Amino acid sequence: MGGKHKMANRTKNNVRPSSSGRSAEFLGSTMVPFVGFSTMKDSTFGFSLSTTEELDSSIDPNIQVIFKKLSKKDSTTKIKGLQELADLIKNSDQDTVKAVLPLWPRFYNVFVTDIDNRVREATHSVHHQIILKAKRNIAPFLKQLMAPWFTSQYDPYPPAASVASQALKDAFPPNKIQEAIAYCQEEILHYLSDNLFIQTPQTLCNMKHVSAEEADAKYERVLISCLQGYQFYLEKVSVEQIQNVVELNNNIVGNSKFWKFGKNKVAYIRATWFKLISIICQKAPFLLDGKGAQVTGSVFGNLEESDPTVLPSVWEAALLTMSTIENWWTFINVDKVFYPKLWKILKQGGQGNAAVIYPSLLPVLSHLLPIVNDSSSEFYDKFFENLRLGMRQKTTIASKSESIAVATAYVECFQFIILRKQDKEHFCKTMIKTHLLTVIEWCLTEDHLSCKTIFSKVGALVQFLSRNSETPALTSYLDFLFESVRDLFRETLFNLKENPDYQPEYVSSKQLEFLRFLKSSGKPKKQFKVKFISDDVDSKEDKLGHLPSIIESDKKYLDKLNVLVYKVCQDYVEYIQEKQSTILFEQLWSLIIDFDSNIFFVNLNEKMRHKNPDSRLVDIYYDLLHNWMISETQCCKRVMSLTFLLLLYVENDEKLRILETLSEVPNEQCLSWAISEALAHPHNKDPIIHNWLKTERVSDFLVSIVDLEINDKCPPELGILLKLALTENDEGELFVESTAIAKIIDKLVQVLKNHPDHPITADSCASLAAYVSAIVYTETLLLSYNDTLLLALFHLSCNSQIDNDIISEETMYEVNSAWQDALSLLAKALPREDSLKLTSKLAEVVKREFSAIDLEENKLNHLVVVDVNALRAIYRSLPLALSDFIRVFLDNSFLKSCGEYIIDICMVAEYVRGELCSPYEDIKVNAVHKKADGDKNEAKYFAWTYLTLAVLSSKLEEGAEYDEEEEEDGIEGDIEERAVILNVIDYNEGYLGQVLHDLGVGQSYLATYKNTKCYDQILNYYVLIEAKLKTTLELMDDTFKAQLKATIRDKSTKLGWFWAKSAYILYTDISPEPLTDIYAEFVQQRTGTCTLGALHLTQVFSKHLDYDLVRYSFDAIGDVIVLNSLIRCEDIDVQIAEVFTKIERIRNENVPRFSYAVSNISWEKTQEIIEIVRLCSSLMKYKFNSLSQRHWDFAVLSLVGWASNCLKTRAAHDKYQFQALLVAVMKLYVNVDNQIKEIQNQSVKSNFIEEWKDVLVESIHCDLAQFWLYLAEQLEQKTDSITYLPLVQEFGSFLNNTYYEYIFKTNDTSLPKWTKFLKRCCSLLVNRQPNLQLWGYKMLMNLVPGLVKIDMEAVNTNTPHKKGLIFEQFKEKLVQTHEIVDSMLMEFRLGEDICRVEPSTDSFTYCFAYLLLWDILLSLCDQSSTELRFQYVDWLRNEDLLKNFLNNLFRLMPTSVSRKVIKDSFLRKPEIDITDTCDSEKIESLVCWLYSSSLTQLPALVRQWWTSLDSKLSQMVEKVTQTFVSGNLVTQELNELVSNQSKFKNMTLRVIPGSREVVATYTVDESQVELLIKLPANYPLGMLEVHCNKQIAGAAHKQWILQFKKSVVHQNGRIWDGLSLWNNNLDKKFDGVEECYICFAVLHPGTYQMPKLSCQTCKKKFHSACLYKWFRTSYKSSCPICRNLF
Q1: Do residue 1634 and residue 1669 come from a single domain?
Q2: pTM of the entire structure?
Q3: Do 1672 and 1547 fall within a single domain?
Q4: Same domain, 1594 and 1447
Q5: What's the burial of 933, exposed, middle or buried (CB within 10 Å: 0-12/13-18/19+)?
Q6: Residue 1448 contacts residue 1665 (beta carbons within 8 Å)
Q7: In sequence order, which residues have a C-beta less than 8 Å from that of residue 375 and are 6 or more positions away?
Q8: Where does it primarily localize (predicted)?
C-alpha cells in the first residue's frame, strides 16, 4: 500500500533477523565525519546525524561502530549503543576519550532532549563517564555542552536529572560552579532564550517520526527545564555577573512570551514561573524596572490560583512583589483586582489551601496598612468577618492543619491590629467585642479542630497584654477582655435554651478549657520577626520590649485571672443551686483544683458572711456541701472531693466532726467516694483520717467489696478502691484495720481453693489475692495475718489443670510472683525453725497435688517448675541454707509404704528369676505395704524420683525455667551458666545415689511386671530419669563423681541387691567406665559382713568378668553362686569339679533333704538346693558338650526327684523359696530337653538321648504338667496376682517344651485327662491377668495337634466324640467373649470408626481372649485334614459366628500406623510369649494376622461375608485385602503347587506368577486335558477364572470344572485341593471307578470320598453326603434314579 513495492519473500536460509546495529557495522567508511556546530540550525533536530562524512580514523574502531549505531532512529538501538559506549569509555584510557570529545557534543545536544526517557538517562550516563575520564580536557568543549547540560539538571524524568546533576558536581567543585556558569552564561542565556521564545513543538521534533502528543510533551519538558535552569542561574551567579549580561537577561524578562508563562495550562510551568519571579525580586530587581504593571498584574491576577502545587509560589511572589515594587498598589485597581479576590479567599477558608495561604496573611496585612484608611474600620471588619466565615467552611473544619492555620492567622492578625491601633480605645474595644469574643463564643458552643488553637493563641494574646501592663491602653484592653469573657460565660451558660444542641456540661467544659489556656500559656515562643514599613512602628515595638519582671507580671495577671475564675465558679454554684442537678460539679471541681482553691473557699465564706457574720469555713460544709451530699439529685463524687478539699483548711476538731458525719451517710456509694478521697494525697498523711479509715463502718464496707468481687457485682472503681485501701502509710502500717484484712484473706482463700465454682470471678479474685499477698507479707508484718493466703496461692500454682478461660496466664504470673516474693522475704526474716515449718507446709501442698494428678509428664513438669521456683525464692534470701529446705521439699516419706512394697516385689522377682540370690536372709513382702488403690502408686514412686532429679538438675539462675533437655553447648559454658541446684547443696551425692538405686529397682520392675497398669508410665519415667541423670552427671565435676562412686561402692557392698544393679547401670549406660576395674575396686574393699553384696556384684557384673578376677573366698553356697554366675567363662573345668565335690558333700549330708523330700527345711538349706539346681541348669545350657557322665547322671536323676517332690509339696507354692526352686527345676528340665533336641537335630549319637527319651522325660513332664494345672487352678483364684507374676512368667517357659503326646496318653492314669487341661485353659483365657491368659493360650496351642487327631479319628471311624467336634468345647467361651466384644464395639460404625483397646481394662481382657480363641480355632483348621476342615467350616457356618468376628476385626484394625508395619502384621503371626507385654499394639497386630489367617483357612466364608456388605464397606475390605493380603496368599498358593507337583502321576503344572496363572495338564496315553486357572488381584475375595483348553472324555469335563470351582470357591479348598480333586477324578474315571449319579463326580468335593452306597434295585452308587442331602431336600427316601425305596 501507499505505492511501496512489495518485498520479496525471505529465502530458506535467511534465518537471522534484521538488525540496524549490524547494518551499521557493514557501513564501514560510508559515514561522513563531524562537520561542526555551524549546521545545527539547518536541521529540525538542531543538526543531522545521518549525513555526516567519514569519521576520523584516529578514533577507536569500536567507538566508530557505536557512533554509527547512535545515528539510527529507533530508541532501542540508541540505548544499546549508549550503554556500550558508557562501558567502553569506563574501561578506556584518557587518550581514547580525548579522541571522542570533538564528536560527543553533537550527539549530546540532540539526545538530551530526546522523547524517550531512557535515551536521555543513558546519554547523561555516557556524559558522566566522559567527565570522569576527560576531566580538564573537557574545557575546550564546555561552551558547546554547558547549556543543555545545565538545563538537564531539571529534566522532569528524575533518573536523567539525577545523573546530569551528579555529572555537574563531579566536573566542578562547589567553589568553581559559579565561575563555570559565568564563563558560559552567554551560551546559556542564548540557549534559554531560543528554547523559551523561538522553539515550538513542531520545530523541536520531526513530526514525521513523532506524534503530536509526544511533541507537546517534549516542548513542555524543555520549557520546564529552561525556566528552572534560569532560576538556578540567577541563584548561583552574582549580581555583578548578571549586570554584565543585563541585555541578554532583559531580552528574556522583557519578552512578551515570558509573561504569558504565568497563564500556561501546565501547572508545573506556572509554578516554576512564579518561583522565577520570586528569585528575580530577591536577586535582580533591576530587571523589573519599568515592568511594575506587568509584574503586579500577572501576580495579583493569579491570587485565586487553586492548584496546590502553584499556590505557594503565587503567594510568595505576591509578598515579594509588595516588598519589591514601590507603590505597587498604583499599578492596579486595588478595590477591583486585589480586595475581591482576597475576600473570596478568606471567606472560602483558603479554598482548601489555608495551610499554604494563611501564614502569608500577616505580612500581607502589614503591606496593606499604607493604603487602608485609618479612620474607617470597614476594611478590618470585612477582613476578620471573612476570616471567621472561613473558619466555618467544611474544608477547614475537616482538616486539622487547615483549621490550625486559619485560627493562628486570625489571632495573630488581630493582635497585630490591636498593637497598631492601641491608641484608639474605642476602635480596639469594638474589635474585641465584635470579633474576638464572637470567635470565642463560637468555640464555646461548637466543637471543631481549631478551638484549641484559638484558645491557645488568645491565651498568648492575653498574657502578652499582661506582660505589657505598663502601657495603660493594653491594661484596659485586658480588663475589658476579662469582663467581657465573664459576661460571655454567664450568658452562654444561663441562656442555653437558645442552643438546644449543646448541653451545659459541654459548654462549661469548653469554658474550663479556655480558662486553662489563659493560665498555662507560658512564655511566647521565639519567633523570627519581619521588619515592617516605617521606623515609627519599630520604635513602638522597641518600647514594648521593655517588659516588667516575669514574677511581677505573672502575679498581677494571676490575680486578675483568679478573680475571673472565682466569678465563674460563683456562677456555677448559682447554676447548681438553681437547677438542683450535678451537671457542673465536675467543672466546678476542676476550676477550684486548677486554680487557687483557698481563694474560692475564702471568697465563698465572705459571701456567706453577708447573711451570717459568724460564718466560718466549716459552715460551707454544713450549709452547702452537706446539703448537696444528702440530696438525691445533687449528690456526686465531686461533692465529696470538695468536702475533702475543704478539710485542708479547717481545724482538727471540725475535721473530725465532718468525718463522723461522713460515716453516718447511708449511701454506700457516697462512703466509697469518701474512702477514695481519704486515701488520696494529701489526705492519706493526716492522722485523723488514718483513724477514720480504721473505723468499723469503713472496715465492713471494704470487706463487702470483696463479696461483691466474688459475686461478680463489683464495679471497677470499687476494686481499685479496695487495692488502694490495702496499702501502707508512711509509718509502714496498713490503712485498714487488721480484722478487716483477715476477713478479706479468708474470703479470697475460699475462692482460690474452689476456683472452678467461680468461673467468672476467679481471675479477678486471684489477681486481688496476689496483690494482698504483697501487702500482708512484708518485713514489718511477717506472718501477722497467718500463712493461709500464701498456701492458697502456692496451691493454685501447683494446679496444672487451670483453665485459662477461668484464670488467665497473666493472672497466674501475678500469683506465681506473689508467693515467690513472699516466700523469699519470709525465709529470710523468720527464724530458721519457723521458715522450715512454713516450707514443710508448702511441701505438703506439692505432695498432695502430686498424689492427686494422673502422672502425665507435663503435669509433673509443672510441679517441678513450682518446686524449683520455690527453691530459687529461698536461695535468693538464704543461699547457704538451701540444703535444709530442699530436704523438706524432696522428702518422699509419704511414699515410704509404696516404695518398700515395690522394692519387696522386685526383690522377689530377682530372686525367683534367679538373677540375684538370697542365701542368708529370708525374703518377705509385707502385707501392710500392699496398696489400696491398685498399681497407680507404683508409678508414683518413680514419678517422684523423676521429680527429685528434675528439681536437683534445674538451673539456679533467676528467671530460668525448667527444660526437659539441656543444650549440649551449654555444658561447656561458665560455671555460673551451668550451675544447678545440685551444686549448692550438701550431701548431693546421696541424692543421686538414691536416684540410681530407684533406677535399678525400675529396671527390675520393667523386666518382670510388664502387664501391669502402670508399666507404660514407669517405662516412660525410667527413660526420662536415665536421660536426665546422664545429662546431670555431665555437668558435675570429678570431685562429685568420686564422691558418688564412693557412695555407690559402700551401699552396693554392704546392702547388695539394687545397689549392685545401680552400680552396673551407672558405669554402663550413664557414665561408662571399665566394668572389670569397677568390680575389682568395689569387691576388694568388702568386709566379712559384705558377702551378700559381693555375691550380688558378681552376679550383676558376671557378663564382663573372668574367673581370675574373683579372688575372694566364699562358703560352699557362695562358690556355687559364683560358678553359676561365671559359667560362660572358658577353661573352668577345675572350678566345676571343685564345686561339684562340695555339692556332693552337701547331698550326702542328707539325701532326702537334698531331694526336697522332707518338710520344714530351713531357708539356708533350701537356698543350697535352689542354687545347686540353678548351677545344673546353667551347666546343661552352657557346658553341655563338655558334660561328664557323672555330672549328667547327677543332674537328671536329681531332676526326677526334685520334680516329683515339688509336685508333692505343691501346697507350699505361696512361699517364695518354693517358687524359686520350682522355677529352677523347670529351667533345668527345659535346658536338658533343648539340648537333647539340638543333638537330635544334628544327628549326633549320644546315650543321653535314649536315656532321656525312654526313661526320664515322660515322668518329669508328667509332674511338671500336673503342677502347671495345679498352679493354674490356684492362680485363677488369686485376687492380687502381681506377686505371682515372676512365677507365672518363668514357669510359663515350660509350655515351650510341653508335649501333647504325654497329655493325650490314655493309659497313664497318673496324669489328668486332657479335657481338664482344655477346660482350665479356656477358663484362663478370660483371666484379668494377661500372663495367665497367655498360659491358657500357649497350652491350647500345644494341645491343637492332639485335638485335631481326636477329631480325625472320630471322622474317619464315624464315631464322633460325645461332645461333638472339638469346636464345641470352645463354644461356651467363644459365645461369652463374642457377646461382650460385640456390646463393646456396637457403637463403632464399620468402616468409619476404629476402636483402640487400652490394656488393664475389662475390655482388653475379653477382647484379647476373644482373639486368642479365634486364633486357636483357625489353627485347628490349619492343622486339620481336608475332610476335617470341611466339618469345621460347616460348624462355623451353622453357628453363624464368623460374620460378626470379621466385622469386629475391621472395627479393631489399626489405620494410623505406617504401611510397612501394617503389612508385616498381616504377613507374620505376632510373637506371643509368656513374658511379652500385652498392650494395644499386640491386639492390633493380632487382629491383622487373624484376618489374614481367616482368608487363608476360610476363604469361602470370608467371601460370602464380603459379598453381603454394602458397596462402601465392600470396597474398603477389598482395598485392605488386595493391599496387604492377596499378594502373599497368591504367592503361597503358587509355591504350594510348585512344591507338590511331583506328587501327581499323570498331571504336570506350569505356574506363571506375573499373571497369577496356573496351567494344569493331565496326560493319558497321547491325549491331554488342559486346565487354565487365573487368580484375581483381590484373591481370595474375587472369583477364579477356570478354562478347559483341551478336553477328552466327552462332556464330563464340565462337571469336573464345576467340582473344582465348588471345592475352591465354596468349600474353603485351596488351589492345590481343587487340582487334587480334579486329578483324582480323572484317575478314577480312567481306572473305571463309577461316579456318583447325583453330583456326577467320582470324589465328593467336600469329603473327598468315593461313592459307596448303592441302590438295591438299579445298582447305582452314590456318595453318602449326596444321598443324605437328596433325602433331606426332596423329603423322600427313594432312589434318585429308579425312584424305588432306598
Answers
A1: no
A2: 0.66
A3: no
A4: no
A5: exposed
A6: no
A7: none
A8: cytoplasm
Q: Angle at which helices 988-1008 and 1058-1065 pack, to 10 degrees?
A: 100
Confidence of residue 280 (pLDDT cuts 50, 70, 90): confident
Region 772-787 average pLDDT: 88
Q: Is the pLDDT of residue 1118 over 70?
A: yes
Q: What is the pLDDT of residues 404-435, one digit of tens each?
A: 888 888 888 888 888 888 888 888 888 888 88
For β-strands 1653-1654 and 1585-1590, DSSP reports them as unpaired
Q: Could you tell me the CA-to-CA distances from 905 to 699, 758, 1220 in Å, in that order?
A: 61, 46, 14
- State the pLDDT at residue 921: 86
Q: Which domain holds residue 915?
A: 848-1026
Residue bearing cell 511501496:
4
Mean pLDDT, range 908-920, rounded to an integer? 90
Q: Label residue 741 left, alpha or beta by phi (over 0 means left) and psi (-120 to 50 means alpha).
A: alpha
Picking from 1324, 1440, 1422, 1465, the residue whose alpha carbon sits closest to that of residue 1375 is 1440
Q: Which of 1267, 1139, 1155, 1132 is nearest to 1205 (CA)?
A: 1155
The residues near 59 (Cβ < 8 Å, ≥ 6 apart) are 67, 99, 100, 103
- Mean pLDDT value of segment 468-496: 82
Q: Cell 551528579 belongs to which residue? A: 166
Give 1472's DSSP letter: -
CA distance 1244 to 1362: 45
Among candidates 1611, 1614, 1610, 1667, which has minimal Cα distance to 1636?
1667
Question: Which amino acid would we find at residue 1464?
Answer: D
In 3-state terms, what secondary structure has residue 1362?
coil
**Domain of residue 58, CATH code:** 1.25.10
The Cα-based distances of 987 to 943, 992, 1060, 1070 in angstroms read 22, 9, 21, 20
Same domain, yes or no, for 167 and 204? no
| Mean pLDDT computed over 1287-1295 | 88
Instruction: Convert the pLDDT of each residue in 564-603 to its tens digit.
Output: 888 888 888 888 888 777 777 778 888 888 787 777 777 7
**At which of 574, 601, 626 does a domain end?**
574
Do residues 149 and 206 both lie within one domain?
Answer: no
Residues forming beta bridges with residue 1549, ordered by sequence position: 1560
1516 with 1373, same domain: the answer is: yes
Q: Is residue 1008 part of a domain?
A: yes
Total structural domains in the chain? 7
3-class secondary structure, 878: coil
Which CATH number do you get for residue 1558? 3.10.110
d(CA 366, CA 379): 13
Cis peptide before 1580 (omega within 30 of 0): yes
Cβ neighbors of 791 (< 8 A, separation 6 or more) are 841, 842, 845
Summarize pLDDT for 804-845 with one digit per residue, the tens. Answer: 889 999 999 999 999 999 999 999 999 999 999 999 999 999
Confidence of residue 1062 (pLDDT cuts 50, 70, 90): very high
| Same domain assignment for residues 1420 and 1486 | yes
Q: How far apart are CA 1342 and CA 1296, in angstroms?
A: 8
Q: Which of 574, 589, 622 is the C-terminal boundary of a domain?
A: 574
Is 1288 inside a domain boundary? Answer: no
pLDDT digits (tens, 9 = 90+) for 658-687: 888 888 887 888 888 888 888 888 888 888
Residue 229 located in a structural domain: yes
Position 999 confidence tier, pLDDT thresholds 50, 70, 90: very high
pLDDT at 1366 over 90: no
The answer to whether residues 386 and 469 belong to one domain is yes
Tell the residue number behind the cell numbers 466569678, with chain if given. Answer: 567
Task: Name the nearest CA neighbour of 1569 among 1540, 1598, 1541, 1543.
Answer: 1598
pLDDT over 50 (residue 33): no
Q: Is residue 877 part of a domain?
A: yes
Residues linked to residue 955 through DSSP beta bridges, in sequence order: 980
Query: How many Å apart are CA 992 and CA 766, to the nearest integer?
Result: 38
